[in-house]
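Question: I have long wanted to understand how a fold can be written as C-alpha cells. Here is the record:
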Amino acid sequence: MVCSRPWSVVMLMPHASEESSVICCDLAWCGCYDRTMSDHLTLRVRTGTADRLERRAKATGTPARTLAAIYVDEGLRRDDHPLIHFVAGETGRRAALIGTGLDVWEAIECIRDNGNDVSAAAGYLGVSEGMLEAAVAYYGEFKDEIEAEIDLNRAESAKALAQWQAGRAALAG
C-alpha cells in the first residue's frame, strides 16, 4: 500500500515473506504497518524525488513502493559491482554489462559454451576479459537470479524452435 499523505519521509520495509516493500510517510497516521515486516528503513528524500518516483511508477505500471525497493537494491548492487547496470525488458529488470549490450546471463552462457574459458569467450564476444570477470563476480553473488534468466531463455528458445519446426512441417505438408 502507498500512503496518500504528501511524502516527506519514505519508509521502505521489506516483507519477511517476499521482496516487496511498503512506502509510507507516517505509519502512525495512516495505519500502513504490516506485522509481517522484518526490516524497515526510514529516509528523507530531496524535494521532488517522491514525485519523480510516483511518475516513474505510473509510467511503468509498478507500485511506487516496489520501484523504490528495486532502486535501493540495484543501487547497492551497482556499488558492489561497478561494471553492472540494470536494464528493463519483457522479463523485467536484469543485470547487464555496461557498454557492451550484453546481459550478465548471456556472458555466463558464452563462458560456459567456451569451456569456462573467460579469455576465449571474451575473444568471441569482442569484449575485454575484465568485463567478463565482472559478470562472473556478479554471477557468484546472484547465481540463482542469473540461472533463472538462463532457464527462461532456454525455455523461450525451445518454444521458438518448436514453432519454427511446426511451420516447416506445415509448408512441407
Summary: Confidence is low (pLDDT under 50) at residues 1-37. The first strand starts at residue 9 and ends at 12. The CA atoms of residues 56 and 62 lie 8 Å apart. The beta strands are 9-12, 41-44, 84-89, 92-97.
